């Protein structure tokens, strides 16, 4: 599990994917989210604007990322 530090209290899912270098561009993040490829805390998440906070777990392509 990779820990990703954020500098704010919350971060939107699409912004997190770019911050963590999971997606190179916003359009790539949007594609992953709309196709149901992203899980947040074990559940498929299809909302780009889903607000994430410290402690949340994001899963993509067999990798796990924890927000710290």
From TrEMBL:
Residues in the signal sequence: none
InterPro entries referenced in this protein's UniProt entry, alphabetically: RNA-bd_S4-rel_YaaA, S4_RNA-bd_sf
Pfam family, one: S4_2
Gene3D superfamilies: RNA-binding S4 domain
Record keywords, A-Z: RNA-binding
Parts of the chain that traverse the membrane: none
Cross-referenced SUPFAM superfamilies: Alpha-L RNA-binding motif
Matches recorded under NCBIfam families: YaaA_near_RecF (TIGR02988)
Name of the protein this chain belongs to: S4 domain-containing protein YaaA
Lineage of origin: Bacteria, Bacillati, Bacillota, Clostridia, Eubacteriales
Gene: yaaA
């Amino acid at each position: 599990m990779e820990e990703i530090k954020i500098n704010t209290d919350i971060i939107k899912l699409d912004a997190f994917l770019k911050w963590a270098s999971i997606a190179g561009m916003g359009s790539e993040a949007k594609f992953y989210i709309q196709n149901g490829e992203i899980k947040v805390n074990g559940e498929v998440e299809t909302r780009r604007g889903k607000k994430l906070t410290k402690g949340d777990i994001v899963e993509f392509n067999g990798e796990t990322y924890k927000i710290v």
